[in-house]
């Protein structure tokens, strides 16, 4: 349930250390390519070359990489919010959470205010879509009336996890994904044209491969989700109500609320949150990730670029020996 961080919380600012020795030619070429790259695709191409060399990375490369990454990403945008995040992430400025209840597992963007709940009128890109809730719900209810296969939301690998072990590989909390890790379930969305069109208009938080995620979520009666933090504060979690029995609630940052028909329920899941179904039938909602409204277009594009680059570089580093 809690994916590993893709990069360290603090890295050395100096790219050289006396005991590191020299980088290999392929590593020197990678650092140069990173400095010159302007797109995530160009960085991915450089990673491919490094990986195909089949050589373990050197300590010198590990020491030079953070400064090269910082330089590459600094050139992406001069927006002060993005530059602040970049410097805090790379340890060049001190950083702290604005709220002790807001501690995302993956990425924290310090320029955003610590706000847990959002009303629909506060979301100018989502508010016009409120009129589509009823037709989406009608379509999904018809779909659910068929023999639909759902899968446990919590992977079986979490069985040893103290927090999520009870729900591991369990249909108590189940999902049917329309979109996950950049992959649409084309057969499913073809059966749900109204829902597909709705999602096409929604301000989905596009920073693959980690977001957006769109899925039908089902919580069986008697099920409680333990308090947990989500991935990041740059996106919000939006719920579109589908089937709401009585006795269902969700608590975010210590405040408990209930779903309402014909309105979205939106919150920052970077805050500590939990949910329960004390009703007599399954609770069903459509869940999807949207951009935080405090981010401008430049910040969104810069963050999507940064996440794609950092994810690819980290994946590349895992193919070699630890630096």
UniProtKB/TrEMBL annotation:
<dbReference type="InterPro" id="IPR007803">
    <property type="entry name" value="Asp/Arg/Pro-Hydrxlase"/>
</dbReference>
<feature type="region of interest" description="Disordered">
    <location>
        <begin position="1"/>
        <end position="23"/>
    </location>
</feature>
<feature type="domain" description="Aspartyl/asparaginy/proline hydroxylase">
    <location>
        <begin position="136"/>
        <end position="293"/>
    </location>
</feature>
<keyword id="KW-0560">Oxidoreductase</keyword>
<dbReference type="Pfam" id="PF05118">
    <property type="entry name" value="Asp_Arg_Hydrox"/>
</dbReference>
<dbReference type="GO" id="GO:0016020">
    <property type="term" value="C:membrane"/>
</dbReference>
<dbReference type="InterPro" id="IPR051821">
    <property type="entry name" value="Asp/Asn_beta-hydroxylase"/>
</dbReference>
<keyword id="KW-0223">Dioxygenase</keyword>
<dbReference type="GO" id="GO:0051213">
    <property type="term" value="F:dioxygenase activity"/>
</dbReference>
<comment type="similarity">
    <text>Belongs to the aspartyl/asparaginyl beta-hydroxylase family.</text>
</comment>
<dbReference type="InterPro" id="IPR027443">
    <property type="entry name" value="IPNS-like_sf"/>
</dbReference>
<protein>
    <submittedName>
        <fullName>Aspartyl/asparaginyl beta-hydroxylase domain-containing protein</fullName>
    </submittedName>
</protein>
């Amino acid at each position: 349930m809690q994916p590993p961080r893709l990069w360290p919380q603090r890295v050395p600012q100096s790219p050289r250390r006396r005991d590191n020795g020299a980088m290999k030619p392929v590593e020197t070429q990678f650092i140069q390519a990173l400095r010159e790259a302007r797109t995530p695709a160009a960085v991915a191409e450089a990673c491919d070359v490094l990986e195909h060399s089949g050589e373990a990375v050197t300590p010198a490369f590990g020491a030079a990489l953070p400064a090269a990454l910082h330089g590459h990403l600094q050139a992406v945008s001069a927006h002060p919010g993005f530059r602040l995040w970049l410097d805090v992430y790379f340890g060049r400025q001190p950083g702290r959470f604005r709220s002790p209840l807001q501690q995302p597992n993956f990425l924290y963007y310090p320029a955003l205010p610590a706000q847990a709940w959002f009303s629909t009128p506060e979301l100018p890109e989502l508010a016009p879509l409120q009129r589509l809730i009823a037709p989406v719900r009608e379509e999904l209810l018809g779909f659910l009336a068929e023999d639909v296969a759902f899968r446990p939301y919590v992977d079986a690998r979490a069985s040893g996890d103290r927090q999520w072990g009870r729900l591991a590989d369990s249909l108590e909390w189940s999902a049917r994904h329309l979109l996950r890790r950049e992959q649409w379930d084309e057969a499913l969305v073809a059966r749900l044209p109204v829902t597909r069109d709705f999602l096409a208009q929604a301000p989905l938080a596009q920073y693959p491969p980690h977001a957006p995620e769109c899925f039908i979520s089902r919580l069986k009666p008697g099920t409680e989700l333990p308090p947990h933090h989500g991935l990041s504060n740059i996106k919000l979690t939006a719920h579109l109500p589908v089937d709401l029995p009585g006795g269902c609630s969700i608590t975010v940052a210590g405040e408990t609320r209930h779903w309402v028909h014909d309105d979205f329920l939106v919150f920052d899941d970077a805050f500590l949150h939990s949910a329960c179904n004390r009703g007599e039938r399954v609770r069903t909602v459509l869940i999807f990730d949207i951009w935080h409204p405090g981010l401008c277009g430049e910040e969104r594009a810069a963050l999507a670029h940064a996440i794609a680059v950092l994810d690819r570089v980290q994946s590349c580093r895992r193919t070699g020996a630890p630096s």
